[in-house]
Design a protein that fits this description.
Length: about 325
């Protein structure tokens, strides 16, 4: 029948058949995916919140997908190095990024030139957790509350220093927000991740930091003093720890959303499949235990809600970075 049709009609019919076959191919690919191990790149060093959560999610996803999910740490440039590696990987669903939202919402305001387009080269797949930051001080600082800490800092201007996971990281931005609102002076000491910053806090090399959770176990042992959480609400795991808003800093919000991203151009069917797999992992008891163990809150948003939250964080943090004049070093 196609053979006897006019040329233009034959072409239209052939094009229609091709498009139908192409449309059917994506769901089929998603159904057979994966047929080899996946790689989950964490763009921060081992031991930090992104790494701890990422490894738990990778294990749960591997068990569900019946394929190994290999975790690879590629830290540096406040997450840009690992994010760039994923952005430039094949868009086939086999290479994913586990990151704080900072690489997408903060870095474009810190760096004059980004090695990738944060809004085009990476596709938000699924949110994983709302990660809180906790104001912690070394026991050498004679303060058992935020008010006492601020009073001590004002009485000793320039004496205190604080660590962070790097210039523009969420712990750094939280500390900048805090010191500016409190009207205190402190020296910023950036590290290549929250884990090495925490090591120096425990050693007393820096006097305080906004820790994304791994330091809570040390606070429980009395090695650090937990003074407040930098979130609008108290942490569900630490109901007796006040927020900074309750401690005289109204509106203080330094929460970030950690999530999974894929290279831009990844087929929609694969993104949907991966979204479901990540949500399944986040719902598992093991992953929830890990997230809550560092004071975070499991967060399995719809993709649209995840994208909207990312856009809101980009506007919120971008405004603060520009007003504070923070730049990547």
């Amino acid at each position: 029948m196609i053979r006897n049709a006019p040329l233009s009609r034959r072409r239209a019919l052939a094009l229609g058949v091709a498009l139908a076959l192409a449309g059917a191919a994506l769901p089929a690919a998603a159904q057979t995916f994966p047929d080899k191990p996946l790689k989950l790149i964490v763009n921060f060093p081992p031991g930090g919140a992104a790494d701890v959560i990422g490894r738990a999610v990778a294990q749960a996803m591997g068990e569900s997908l019946k394929q190994q999910v290999i975790v690879e740490n590629r830290p540096g440039a406040n997450g840009n190095i690992g994010a760039e590696a994923v952005a430039k990987s094949p868009a086939d669903g086999y290479t994913l990024l586990m990151s704080s939202g900072g690489a997408m919402t903060v870095n474009p305001f810190l760096y004059r030139q980004m090695p990738f387009d944060a809004e085009k080269d990476l596709v938000p797949v699924a949110s994983v957790a709302r990660v809180l930051v906790f104001l912690m001080a070394h026991p050498s600082v004679p303060a058992n509350s935020v008010a006492e800490f601020v009073a001590y800092a004002k009485a000793h201007p320039g004496k205190l220093s604080y660590g962070s996971a790097g210039q523009g990281s969420s712990p750094h931005l939280a500390a900048e927000m805090f010191t500016r609102q409190a009207g205190i002076q402190a020296t910023h000491v950036p590290y290549r991740g929250a884990a090495p910053a925490l090591t120096d806090l425990l050693a007393g090399q820096v006097q305080f930091m906004f820790d994304p959770g791994p330091g809570l176990k040390h606070a429980a042992e009395g090695k650090l003093r937990l003074l407040a959480v930098g979130s609008p609400q108290r942490a569900s795991q630490l109901p007796n720890t006040p927020t900074l808003a309750e401690s005289g800093f109204p509106g203080f919000d330094a929460d970030t959303v950690f999530g999974i991203y894929a290279p831009g151009g990844t087929p929609a069917a694969l993104v949907a499949r991966l979204h479901d797999e990540v949500n399944k992992a986040v719902a598992s008891a093991k992953v929830q235990e890990v997230i809550k163990g560092i004071g975070g809150e499991p967060l399995a948003l719809t993709r649209q809600a995840f994208i909207e939250r990312q856009n809101a964080d980009r506007a919120r943090f971008g405004k603060f970075i520009q007003e504070a004049g923070i730049k990547a070093e």
